[in-house]
């Protein structure tokens, strides 16, 4: 009803939820900002041999205090996971984790939502734009943002690159600030109590800027840690150009190393 009446939601969903609203495929990268430990486990499976781990195409879940085995595919409990089929296994685990367990609820939500807003009207948006459409962009207090930002490497508030960074932020429109915030943290929304209450996948995690890479690189984001890896650009113009292109194209997103 909020969307129908042009009202903004006072809150937000996790990013995969918006992708499900758009009927887009959920991937391993989507797990990263939701459950880092689980993401790391699945990522390990992708990049290492699983021979000898005795994994099958099933998962164990606790339901009403009891452990229940759920097949990820027909007769999954009897199908071993091997190095040749492990990517399918990871894909099915993610699909079950995000979609399978709430399939009926998500179907009901989408049916109700699409009665008010036809699906074809939101298909033109990506998940980032849909979040902004539904939740809007708050008036972002740049001074509060600047006050509650951490620096890594040899960056400090007085470093020339950081001075140029905040100059760029102050001169941006509020929408552009929201897009940058979304690029780095996964959401354009600021916690109710301001930037001091920002949380990452490991608990409280302030917005962080780290000196990383060389000036020919684009900035990159680690949404799990609310961290922006920012090369030490020597000029304001280069910084704004690279930052804008990274945010608009997500060219700098590389996830967690």
TrEMBL record:
Pathway membership, UniProt: Protein modification; protein ubiquitination
Active site feature: 224 (glycyl thioester intermediate)
GO cellular component terms given for this protein: cytoplasm
Top-level class of the enzyme under EC nomenclature: transferase
Domain HECT: 1-256
Pfam families: HECT
EC number: 2.3.2.26
Catalytic activity from the UniProt record: S-ubiquitinyl-[E2 ubiquitin-conjugating enzyme]-L-cysteine + [acceptor protein]-L-lysine = [E2 ubiquitin-conjugating enzyme]-L-cysteine + N(6)-ubiquitinyl-[acceptor protein]-L-lysine
Molecular function (Gene Ontology), one example: ubiquitin protein ligase activity
Domain of life assignment: Eukaryota
Record keywords: Phosphoprotein, Repeat, Transferase, Ubl conjugation pathway
The keyword Phosphoprotein belongs to this UniProt entry's keyword annotation: yes
Annotated GO biological process: protein ubiquitination; regulation of dendrite morphogenesis; regulation of transport; ubiquitin-dependent protein catabolic process
Protein name: HECT-type E3 ubiquitin transferase
């Amino acid at each position: 009803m909020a969307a129908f009446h042009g009202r903004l939601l006072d809150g937000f969903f996790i990013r995969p939820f918006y992708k499900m609203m758009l009927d887009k495929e959920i991937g391993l990268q989507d797990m990263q900002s939701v459950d880092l430990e689980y993401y790391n486990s699945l990522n390990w499976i992708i990049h290492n041999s699983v021979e000898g781990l005795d994994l099958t195409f099933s998962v164990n879940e606790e339901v009403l205090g009891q452990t229940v085995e759920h097949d990820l595919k027909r007769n999954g409990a009897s199908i071993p996971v091997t190095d040749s089929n492990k990517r399918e296994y990871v894909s099915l685990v993610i699909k079950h984790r995000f979609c399978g367990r709430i399939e009926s609820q998500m179907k009901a939500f989408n049916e109700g939502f699409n009665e008010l807003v036809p699906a074809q009207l939101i298909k033109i948006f990506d998940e980032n734009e849909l979040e902004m459409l539904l939740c809007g962009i708050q008036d972002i207090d740049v001074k509060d943002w600047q006050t509650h930002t951490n620096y890594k490497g040899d960056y400090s508030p007085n470093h020339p690159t950081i001075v140029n960074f905040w100059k760029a932020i102050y001169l941006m429109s509020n929408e552009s600030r929201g897009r940058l915030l979304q690029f780095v943290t996964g959401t354009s929304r600021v916690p109710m109590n301001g930037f001091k209450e920002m949380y990452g996948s490991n608990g409280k995690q302030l917005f962080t800027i780290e000196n990383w890479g060389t000036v020919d690189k684009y900035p990159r984001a680690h949404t799990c840690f609310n961290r922006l890896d920012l090369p030490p650009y020597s000029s304001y113009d280069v910084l704004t150009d690279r930052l804008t292109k990274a945010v608009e194209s997500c060219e700098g997103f590389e996830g967690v190393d």
